[in-house]
Amino acid sequence: MATNPAAKTEIPPMFTPYKLRGVEMINRVVMSPLCMYSAEDGVVGDWHVVHLGSRAMGGAGLVIAEMSAVHPDGRISIRDAGIWDDKHTEPWKRVVDFVHENTDSKIGIQLGHAGRKADTGLSWQRGTDAQMEYGFDIVAPTAIPVSERARTPRVITDEEIVALPGLYKRATERAEEAGFDVLNFHCAHGYLMSSFISPLSNHRNDELGGPLENRMRLPLKIFAEVRKAWPEDRPIVVRISAVDWEESGHEIEDAVEIAKMFKAAGADAMDVSSGMVTNKRPPDTTMFQVPFAERIRADADMATMAVGNIETGEQMNDIISNGRADFCVVGRGHMYDPYLTRHIAREIGYDYPWPNEYGRGGGFRSKL
Amino acid sequence: MSPESDAATETPPMFTPFKLREMTLRNRVVMSPMCMYSADDLDGTPTDFHIVHLGSRAMGGAGLVFTEMTQISREARISPGDAGMYEDRHMEAWKKVVDFVHTRTDAKIGMQIGHAGRKACEPIAWKRHTPLTDDEKWEIVGPSAIKFGPDSEMPKEMNQSDIAKVVDDFVSAAKRADQAGFDIIEIHAGHGYLLSSFMSPLSNQRTDAYGGSLENRMKLSLEVYHAVRAVWPDEKPISARISAIDWNDDGNQIEDGVEIAKMFKAAGLDIIDVSSGNVTSERRPVTPGLFQTPFSEQIRREADMSTMTVGNLAVAEQINGVIAEGRADLCCVGKGHLFDPYFVRHAARELGYDLKWPNQYPAAGAFNPNPEIMR
User: Fold this and answer.
1) Chain A contact for B368, CB < 8 A?
2) Which candidate from B34, B314, B342 shows the least CB-CB separation from A368?
3) Nearest residue in chain B measured CA to CA from A333
4) For residue A279, is it within any domain?
5) I need a labelling partner for B4 at 20 to 30 A (CA). Which of A115, A175, A191, B346 fits?
C-alpha cells in the first residue's frame, strides 16, 4: 500500500465509515444506480463488470447496480438489466464477486419496475430513427400516460397486483444468491411503485388509491415481502421522489410521511431523489435535492442518502458533517471519473490506500 | 512523420491520429505495459481483473492500451502472478479482454510479450519480503552466469537449444496474440529481461555468435523479431521496447541505443518504445522530468524511425509538447493511468477538446469537477 507522508491524519467526514445493519461502508460516497442499457435480455456482461468494477476500485464505499427489472415488461428498454429470471443471477454474481475480491466497496442492486415509463427505448436512441418501442405490455395504477406524447398504459389487473410481491420476492432471493450487500427498492421517478405513490398518476378509488396511506399500501406490501426474503443482517434502502415538482403532486411534507411509513416497515435508509413522475423537469441546480434528504433525516429520524449534482469533496464533507445526509450519492461524477473518491482523497490530502497493483498510482504527480 | 503539419489544425497534437501499417490510433496516448501480478491461478491466466483494468482504461480514451509484460513460457515469468501467453487457455482469456476493448471502445489493444531471463523467479511485487519457497522456484537463465544483483539467484548460461526454445516460445505467443485479436505486439527487449540482457555488455559476456560486438549481442533479439514478424499478420505493426542506455559507464550508451534502433529498423520494425536502464540492480536515476524523452528524440532523428517515449509524462501540456516538437510519435503514460483510468478524457476536458463520451455516460460531459473555477 502506498502512503502519502504529507497526508493529514484527521479523517474527513466523507471518509468516516457508516454501518447499516451488518454492512459497514468504508466511506460515505455511493455510486448512484445508473441505467446502462447494455444488457442482453436482462443478462449483464463484461460492460457491467467494467462499469461497476472500475468504480468500486475507484474508492466509493458503496456502488449500486442499475435499476434491474423484476419483470420483462417492467424494463425501460429492451437493453435494461434484469433480475426477473434465474439466468440473471450468475452474471450478477460475477460482478459482485469482482467487487468483493478486488475492492473494499460494498455493492447493492436496485430493484424496479418501470410501470408506465416502460418501453421507451435506449436513452441515446431517443430522437433517432431507431426502433424505440418493442410492444411491452405497459401497466400503471390508472390509465394515464406519463406525458402527452407517451403511450397510454393499461390499468394493472388485480391478478397482476397480487403477483407483484412474489416477483419482487424472487428478485430479492436472486440478489441474495448473487451476493449483493444492499438492496435499493426503487419507489421514485414515476416508475411503477412511484406511480402508485403519487396522486398525479394514481387516480384509483379502491384501497390502493386516494389518501397517501392507500397509495402507499402496495409499495409497503411489497417492501414487507422483500424485507422477509432479504437476510436480516443486510440493509434495504428505498429511493423515493421526495417532491413531484408539480402542483397537486407531493410536497416535502408527504415525503416525510412516506419515509416514516417505510421506516416503520423496517427500511434502513431513504435515498432521497425527486420528480420525474411526469415529464416536468426538476430545476437540476447544485445539490438541489439535499434539503429534502436533510428534512427527512430530521423529521423522520432516519438515515438518508442525498443525491443530485453533488460534485466536490467540500460539498460532501459539508453534507456529512452538517448532518444533512448520511451518504452522498454521486452519479454524474462517477460517469466522468471512475476514481472520483480516490481523486477527492488526494485533493483534500487524505491518505487513501491504493490497490497493490496500483501502488505506483499513489505516487503519481498530477500537476507539474 | 511530420508533426509540424498538425500545428495547422485545431486538434491538439496529442489528439491527432497516428497510423502504423493498417492500425490507426485515434490519438497519441498509449497506456504503458504495467505488471499487475494478478493472474488467476498463479499460472498465467488473466481474469476479470484484467478486463476491468484494461477495459476501463481503454474506455478512458487512450489511443492504445498495452497489456502488461506477458510471458512466453512458465519459466519466463518474473513472478508466479505474471500473466502468460503460453497456453491456449491464456489465449481464450485474453480474447475476452480484446473483444471488450474492440466492441466497447475506440482504443486499440496491444500485447507486450517477453521473457524475464535472469530477472525471473521473484516474489510478487507486494510480497517481496516473502521469498519464494524451493517448491515455487524454477531455474533462471541468462546469456552468461552473472547475477542481476548481489541478492539475486545465479542464472544458468543459455545453450543453443535454450536459445532455440526461446525463439519458438516467442513465435507461439505471437500466434496466440494474433488469434486473440491483438492489434499490435511489442517485444520486450528492455529493462534487463532476457533479450535486454543479451543486448547489454553488463550481462552478456558470451564468446559465441550471441556475445561480443553489439551486432552479436543483438543477434537473439533480431532472430526473435524475424521469427515473430514471419507469423504476425502483415497489416499489424510490431514494436520493441528497449533500454536506450544502461545508466552505467560500462554498459550501452545512447550511441548504442541509436545503433540498436537502426538494426531493428533495418529488420523492418515499425516503432521503437524507448525506455532505459534496469539492466542491473543499480537503479536508474529517478527524476521528476521527462528524463527518457531525449533518448526517444535522438533515436527518432538519427535512426529516422517512429518512437514512443515513456517516463514521467503527467500532463497534457507535456504530451502536446513532445508530439508537436517531434520528440516522439506516441507518448506512453503508466503511472498516470494507474492514478486515473480516464486520464485521456480528463486531459481532453482540460484542453477543451471534445472527446465523445460513451453513450452510457451521457451526463459525464456536464459534470463539473471544479465549480469554483469553471462556473
Assistant:
1) yes
2) B314
3) B367
4) yes
5) B346
Residue B334 near chain A (CB below 8 Å): yes
Domain boundaries, chain B: 3-374
Instruction: State which residues form the domain around A329.
Output: 13-363
Of the candidates A297, A119, A265, the one whose C-alpha atom is nearest the C-alpha of residue A187 is A265
Question: Are B56 and A286 a contacting pair at CB < 8 A?
Answer: no
| CATH of residue A318 | 3.20.20.70
Which residues does chain B have within 8 Å of residue A361's beta carbon, measured at their own beta carbons?
335, 338-340
Give the pTM: 0.94
Q: Are residues B341 and A335, on separate chains, in Cβ contact within 8 Å?
A: no
Please report, for residues A114, A164, A302, the alpha-carbon distance to residue A157 in angstroms, rounded to integers and kept in the order given.
16, 11, 34
Integer CA distances (angstroms), B72 to B158, B200, B248, in order: 16, 21, 29
Chain A interface test: which of B47, B96, B287, B360 (most A C-beta within 10 Å): B360
pLDDT by 10s per residue, chain A, length 368: 345 544 555 899 999 999 999 999 999 999 999 999 999 999 999 999 999 999 999 999 999 999 999 999 999 999 999 999 999 999 999 999 999 999 999 999 999 999 999 999 998 988 888 888 899 999 999 999 999 989 999 999 999 999 999 999 999 999 999 999 999 999 999 999 999 999 999 999 999 999 999 999 999 999 999 999 999 999 999 999 999 999 999 999 999 999 999 999 999 999 999 999 998 888 888 899 999 999 999 999 999 999 999 999 999 999 999 999 999 999 999 999 999 999 999 989 998 889 999 987 777 766 65
Closest CA relative to residue B125, chosen from A333, A321, A357: A357
Element (H, E) at A239: strand A236-241
Asked if the structure places residue A101 within a domain, the reply is yes
Assess A46–B contact: CB distance below 8 Å, yes or no. Answer: yes
Residue A7 inside a domain? The answer is no
In chain B, residues 121-140 whose CB comes closer than 8 Å to chain A: 125-126
Catalytic residue at A191? yes
Q: For the domain B3-374, what is the CATH superfamily, name and number?
A: Aldolase class I (3.20.20.70)
Per 3-state DSSP, chain B is made up of helix, strand and coil in percentages (nearest 5) of 40, 15, 45
Asked if residue A1 is part of any domain, the answer here is no
Beta-strand relationship, B18-20 and B23-25: antiparallel
